[in-house]
Amino acid sequence: xxxxxxxxxxxxxxxxxxxxxxxxxxxxxxxxxxxxxxxxxxxxxxxxxxxxxxxxxxxxxxxxxxxxxxxxxxxxxxxxxxxxxxxxxxxxxxxxxxxxxxxxxxxxxxxxxxxxxxxxxxxxxxxxxxxxxxxxxxxxxxxxxxxxxxxxxxxxxxxxxxxxxxxxxxxxxxxxxxxxxxxxxxxxxxxxxxxxxxxxxxxxxxxxxxxxxxxxxxxxxxxxxxxxxxxxxxxxxxxxxxxxxxx
Amino acid sequence: xxxxxxxxxxxxxxxxxxxxxxxxxxxxxxxxxxxxxxxxxxxxxxxxxxxxxxxxxxxxxxxxxxxxxxxxxxxxxxxxxxxxxxxxxxxxxxxxxxxxxxxxxxxxxxxxxxxxxxxxxxxxxxxxxxxxxxxxxxxxxxxxxxxxxxxxxxxxxxxxxxxxxxxxxxxxxxxxxxxxxxxxxxxxxxxxxxxxxxxxxxxxxxxxxxxxxxxxxxxxxxxxxxxxxxxxxxxxxxxxxxxxxxxxxxxxxxxxxxxxxxxxxxxxxxxxxxxxxxxxxxxxxxxxxxxxxxxxxxxxxxxxxxxxxxxxxxxxxxxxxxxxxxxxxxxxxxxxxxxxxxxxx
Lengths: 247, 345
Hints:
- Chain A is α/β, with parallel strands linked by helices and 247 residues long.
- In chain A, 38% of the residues lie in helices and 28% in strands.
- Chain A has helices at residues 41-49, 73-78, 96-110, 118-131, 137-140, 149-163, 179-192, 206-211, 231-240; strands at 2-11, 16-25, 30-34, 54-63, 66-67, 81-84, 91-95, 142-143, 167-171, 198-202, 216-221, 224-229.
- Chain B has one domain.
- Chain B is of the alpha/beta class and 345 residues long.
- At the A-B interface, α2, β7, α3 and β8 of A face α4 and α5 of B.
C-alpha cells in the first residue's frame, strides 16, 4: 500500500534529516513511529506530503504503486494520503465547513466524481462531528482558528473522517489532548480505520497505543528506523527510554 | 476664495507636495495651462473665472484647501447636490453623481441613522473627480460605503470632507478594484466629544493599476476615536500607497487612534508605499500605527493544498479570507452585507 524505500531528505541549508527510511505499510495495519525529539519523525510526514521546505535527496515513496514524490501536493492527498501535522495551521477567515467541502470536492473531482450534494455533505458532516463529539460551533469557525490544541487535533480527525484517505500519517495526534479528548480522538481513528486502510501514528507515549493497537512499532533515530517490533516494543520504550537501543 | 483661484494659487500637484508624495503626478493633465486644457473645459483655464458656478459653491471659501483633488470638481463647475437628512431620521440611500465632476453636500441631523452607498457614474472623460462634504450631527450613526465593479477609468479622484459632532459615529468602508489610477482623499474632523470614525479599505489591484489613499483625521475633541484599516492584495505591477495622518489637538484627552496597513504582494512587480504621520499635541492619548507587507502565508497554502485543494484555488481562498477580514468587525448593516457579498463573487 505505502512503500517507502531508502528515503533521504534535507532542509534548505543542506542538512540531511532523513538518512534512508524504509517502511512497508499494508492495508489494515497500524504503524507506530516513536523516537526521541529531533529524530526526523515530523520531517518524514512532511516529506511524504511534499512540504516545500524539504528536498528529497533520494529514495522512493509509492502509494498503491504510484510514485508519490512525482505528484503535486494536492495530488498526493487526492490519491489517498492524509497528513496531520503536530501543530495544525490556523487559517482565520477560511470557514471550516467550506474548507472541508472544498477539500472533499477536490478529491471527488480528482477521482472523476461529481460534487457532493448539499444535503449529503451536511449529513456526512453531522455524522462525523457526532462521532468526534464536536459541537456546532466548529462549523462557524475558521480552520483551526483560535482553537485549543485539543480542538485542533479533533478538527484534524474530522478532516480525516470526511476525506476518507487510504493512508493517514498522524503526527503526535495525542499531544495537547486531555484524557477524555484522547479517548474521543482515538475512538474516531479506530472508527475510520478499516481493513482497506492504514494508519501511521507518530507518538511519544504508550497512552495513545492503549486505545489504538499498533501492528508494528518502529523506532526512528537520527533519520533512520533503527528498530522495529510488535506492540510490546512500545511498552519497553515507555519503561526504558531509547538509550538501550544500539544503532 | 473660489476653487479655480485656489488651484491657480497652489498649482498642479507635484511630488514634493506631501499630499501627493506617492502619486504619479505626471499622469494628471495640466489643467492650468491654456494649451494644456485637454479636458476641454474653458472654465479652468486662467482668466476664465467668469464661468458660471452654482449657488452652493459661491458660499464656500477654499482659501485653506490645499488638496488639488478637493478643488478640482468645483473648479470644473460640478453641479452641487445638497441633501439634508433630518434629525432622528432612519435612511438608506444611494448616491450617484450625474456628471464626471460631482459635488455632494450632505447634512445629517442629530441622532439620524444613515446608510449611504456611493455608486459610480457612467463617465465620459479621462478624468473624474468627485467631492463630498458631509456634516454629521450629534449622536448620528452613519455608514458610507462603496464597492463598485472594477472600472478601467484612467484617472479618478474622490475627496471626502467629513465633520463630526459629539457622540457621532461614521463607518467608512470601500473596496477598490479599478484598473486605472485612483486616489481617495479624506479630511475628517472629529469636532465633538465622543465622536468616532472608522475607515476600512480593501484594494484588489492587478496589472498596472495604481491606487492612492490620503487621509487626515483631526481629533479636535476629547474622547474621540479613530481607526484605520487598509488592506491591499496586489498582483502584476500594481501599486498602492497609503498616506495616513492623525492629528490630536491640545486638551484632547483620552483620544484613541489606530492605523494598520496590511499588504500581500502576489507578484514580484507589485509594490506598496505607506506613510503614517502622527501629530500629537496632548499627553494622555493612545495612538498606534502598523504596517505589514508579505506574501500569502506559505504554511497556510501548504495546509490547504495538502488537503487536496489545487494551488490556484487555495490561493483564492486565502485571498478571499484576507479580504473578508477587513470588514468582518463591522456591525450587521447593509454596508457589511454589500461588501462581503461583493467579495463572495
